[in-house]
Sequence to fold (265 residues):
Amino acid sequence: NAEASAAGAAVGFDEGWYGAALGAFFAMTVLMFVIVNFFISAPYGRHVRRGWGFGVAVREAWIIMESPALFVMALVYHTGQFHSLHVPHILLRLHQMHYIHRTLIFPFRMRADGKAMPVSVVAAGFLFNVFNSYLQARWISHYGTYPTPWLSSPQFLLGALLFFGGFAGNIWADNVLLNLRSDKEDRSYKIPRGFLYEYVSCPNYFCEVVEWLGWAIMTNSLAGFAFFVATLANLGPRAKAHHQWYYKKFSDYPRSRKALTPFIY
Ligand code: NDP
Fold:
């Protein structure tokens, strides 16, 4: 219906700063893709290397890096003209659902005792999350218009399906990896198996990409689309790097698997 189809339309998109920020975010995404795809995998996890600054304990690193998605998102959201409306509120809660897990639950489940992440990666992740959270929050509570009927529109429902499916799949896939290690000090790598792992090396990344595609569809916004593209630009090359790493590490690694997307790539 007409009201629902108005969702995501701009209210005052003429405020130049927000448009410029979105443009800068897309430009940053292109730059990041070129670097991580053609030059260097982000130096953490199995791709960690010396020379990227002092090490921050992995658990603390994840909490610091992801925390802006909780506090910047909440602060900016509440400055928006539509912050008390129903649909923006639901979008905020969905975003928080993902980031409460990523920031406050996932780091405590990692088997990462004694492992460190270079401070430059932590800083880059932190700044990315500040920037991205500002874009998402500002859109959903200030520039986007989301009348209540948007919740029952086919577009919102499709987006929500992808978002929840991606969220659940991402947690499942991370769980498989976390359970490959016997205890918190175990640093070994094994071949993950079962369900989506029979098709791709990195179903956790695949599901994360699907989740933010769902967000882009649900929010019907350039901001949401920018987040989806940035996730793909970051995790696509990383999935390729993981995939190649598995081939080198394990001579019996299943040849039929793709890197990120079943049957495709
Ligand atoms: P990885 O798949 O590299 O690792 C996830 C965890 O599992 C790590 O603790 C890792 O240990 C461990 N692990 C991975 N593979 C194996 C294996 N074969 N055997 C034993 N243990 C293994 O994911 P990331 O650390 O890059 O990302 C973690 C989560 O964050 C993912 O869900 C990802 O989707 C999300 N993320 C989202 C981003 C976005 O742009 N939205 C960006 C980056 C991550 P170790 O660290 O020691 O390798």
User: Anything to note?
Assistant: The first helix runs from residue 2 to 5.
